[in-house]
Amino acid sequence: MPNLKAWQKKIQDKRKQTDLRDFLMQIASWKPYSFYRYDGHVSRYPQTERTPKLCTQAEFNQYRDAPIALEYDPSLSFFSQIGALFQKVPFAYLLEFYNGNENADYCDASFWVKNGYLSTTVWLAAENIFYSSFSYTHIADIYNSFFVTDNTSQVYFSSAVWTRSYKVFYSRCITGSNNIWFSSNLIGCSECILCDGLQNQKYCIENKSYEKQAYFQKKWEILRNKTEFLKYYTQVNKTAPNYLSENCTGNALYFCENLENGYFFVRGKNGKNVMIGDGDNGCEHLYDCFDVWVNSEHLYGCVWVWDQLSHTYNSGEIGKGWNIYYSYYMSHCSHCIGCIGLKNKSYCILNKQYSKQEWYELADKIFSSMESDWTLWDFFPWDLNPFYFNDTMAWLLWDFTKEEVEAKGYMWRDEEIKVDIPEGSKIIQTTELDSYQWYDENGEWKIDPEILKTVIQDEKWNYYRIVQMEYDFLMKHALPLPEIHWMDRMKLNFGV
After folding, report:
1. For position 2, what pLDDT does the model report?
2. For residue 98, pLDDT beyond 80
3. Residues whose CB falls within 8 Å of the CB of residue 340, separated by 6 or more in sequence, listed in order
């Protein structure tokens, strides 16, 4: 029987050499962060020549009972055959791996979410989540934020906010803290503004401690000047120490070991180019991995993978399984090569079932052919990527240009972003927002509810609107109306 471990090692060795920028371009570009609506459905996929066949989640579940399969053709490149399968398999409009969402039509890769809007990768008792991503586990009232978890609430325009934090605004890397503004790298703090690197402190401004009464007077003066809020946030420290981590490089790593180029990851060890995830009891041997969760190991070139997954190579959207290669949208599978949409299957190639011996023999031929083609270690090629590059996490994380993206063959969206915008709405420019918000004669912050009837167009000509729950949150916390589109708000959260 062919030695599968020898092929695995060849892929591993090559993946360990990947540049961070190449990793993001290849793999994070398969994680979308925008939404489209057509045929009466909300979808993660834009309508282009690369869009796969789409269906409801119920229809996709039915398809999984009798999946489409192809016969391997040794005269064709293997990726071309995967591409042919991509065009035949129906994909669900949105990722819905579990039931339990309520009022979350504009959420992708989510479950057990109540009141979610224009957000992705949100799950496990999450309520009132707007324009946010990678937020999970008993959280509530999260707006324009990234990577918020663990019994945290009332977070606005912030990233990496964890462990029973609340009332955190325009801040980064905040743990176990509350009433924080324009700050970074705080642990166990309360009532801090424009601070960085403090622990167990309160009533601080620019790292200077004040008496309580003097602090609140200065706080009022700072927060009254709302035109400065975005400027304050862009000046917040974008780098974060790696907390309780050893031999690691990167940013915002917690309880990690031996990671090179690790970013926003908890409980991971041994790897390179690892971004976004939580290993729960531990994930290890991760190389070129984006969006990894819960007790997984030996992953090479993977995006959106989770839950006791091992020995998976150049694959995406995979949960529970092992020995998975060049596959997509899989669950509870093992020993699969070039498969799409399978569940509870083993020893499959291009979705066709084989005996164990047949599978090993054909696998050896496929891997040998791919090595000859110099594609054995590659992720899915650019011409299979169905997303606009500037709708994905790759663009949010790094300043790629349209020219370099299109030179690599990826698609770029030139049209304005116009998601969930009612036809015939009154359109205003961001320069007009001041006429909708002000302090009244009693010093109370007011936002005209008429803003709910308008659509706002920003300086890049992208459209967005203010919805009722967002309006209520802005009023409650005396926050100004956002002046940039929600995708640009999210991009400000990153500093790789």
Report:
1. 60
2. no
3. 67, 82, 85, 86, 89, 327, 328, 329, 330, 351
* Measured CA distances, 74 to 49, 71, 81, 368 (Å): 27, 10, 10, 11
Compute the Cα dihedral for 3, 9, 12, 14 and give only its sign: negative
d(CA 360, CA 294): 29
Sign of CA dihedral 415, 419, 422, 425: negative
Q: Does the reported pTM lie above 0.70?
A: yes
Q: Which DSSP string do the residues of 159-197 spell out, in sequence order?
A: EEEESS-EEEES-EEEES-EEEES-EEEES-EEEES-BS
Lay out the sheet containing 463-464: strands in order across: 426-429, 454-457, 463-464
Q: What is the DSSP letter of 343?
A: B
Q: Single out the residue of 257, 283, 261, 284 nearest to residue 272, CA to CA.
A: 261
Question: What's the token pair of residue 294?
Answer: 């819960």
Strands 53-55 and 437-439: unpaired
**Is 50 in contact with 411 (CB distance < 8 Å)?**
yes
- Sheet containing strand 297-325, edge to edge, reads 250-254, 257-293, 297-325, 328-337, 346-349, 352-353
Rounded Cα–Cα distance for residues 451 and 454 (Å): 5
Task: Kindly tell me the burial class for residue 496, based on how many C-beta atoms sit within 10 Å of its own C-beta (0-12, 13-18, 19 or more).
Answer: middle
Per-residue pLDDT at 91 exceeds 60: yes
Taking only the tens place, the pLDDT of each residue in 43-53 is 999 999 999 99
